[in-house]
Every structure is written in C-alpha cells, then in structure tokens.
Amino acid sequence: MSTVIGRWRIVTLVTLVVGALVLAGCGGVLSPDLFIVYRTGSVPGAQLTMLVNEEGVVHCYTNPAHQGPAHHLSDPQIIEARTIQEHLEEPASQHESLPPGPGSVLHYYLRDANGSVRFSDNSAHQPSAMRKLGLFVLSTAQKVCGVSQQGA
User: Fold this and answer.
1) What is the sign, positive or negative, of the torsion defined by CA atoms of 138, 142, 146, 150?
2) Buried b vs exposed e over 70-80: b needs ≥16 C-beta within 10 Å?
3) Which stretches does DSSP call E strand in 42-85?
4) Rounded to 5 degrees, what are φ and ψ at 88?
5) Per-residue pLDDT tens for 60-82?
C-alpha cells in the first residue's frame, strides 16, 4: 500500500512540474526593450515610433494609438541595434539634448534603460551613433516594417 502512495506522490509531483513548465513556456518570458525611438518632423511620413527589444522584435507605428505588428530583425540588424544602443549609453544617462540646426527636418527622441537623448537630423556635434540611429530607423521602417517613408 505504501508503494502505491509513494508512486502516486511521484506522479503528482511530476505532473505539477511538467504543468508549471508548460505554463511558463506558454506565457513566455518577454525580452526587455532595447530602446524606443520617437521620430517627428516637418515632412510627410516623418512621424514614426519604433520599439526594438533585445531579441530583435521590432514594432513600427505611425499612429500613437496603434502599435504596429511585430516584425523580426535579422541577426546583423540586431547587432547593429545593440551597438547603437551601447554607443548611446553615456549620452542617454546624461539625458543629452542637442538643439536642431537651421533647416532641420527630422527630430529624434530615444529612450532606453539608461535615460534618453534628443537630437535632430542636423544637430551640431552629433556622435556617429546618432547618425547611425537615424539611418537604422529609416531602413528598418522601410525594409523590415514596410512603412512608407515619403519625405523622411
């Protein structure tokens, strides 16, 4: 009789462990966000929000009330996004804000776990990571998310 009870406890324990693993797998662990970029400007197609997470899932949307569908970056694009974010760590932690130059068209606001940066397409003294971010946003919106970038 005690063998039956012992086996019953083992079966119950295994069932609980397997059930917990299944539930954890179904809910999934969400990857943290790498950064979110808000782009605005004075030309058609300038308004864009792009959210990129650690695993390369990206959402692009032009309407603040509607988050676009999930898209996936290629491995080189994930590396590029992480490199840009790493190079902007220090400016973000200092909440760097560069004023736009005359005739500025596009304005960027990036927020990540370290803080935020603001700059425009023609801000003076931009580190190369800011220029790379502008290009990353444009190319990812077009090639990955399929968002028209007329004028942007």
Assistant:
1) positive
2) ebebeeebbeb
3) 48-53, 57-61, 70-72
4) -100, 5
5) 988 766 777 899 999 999 999 99
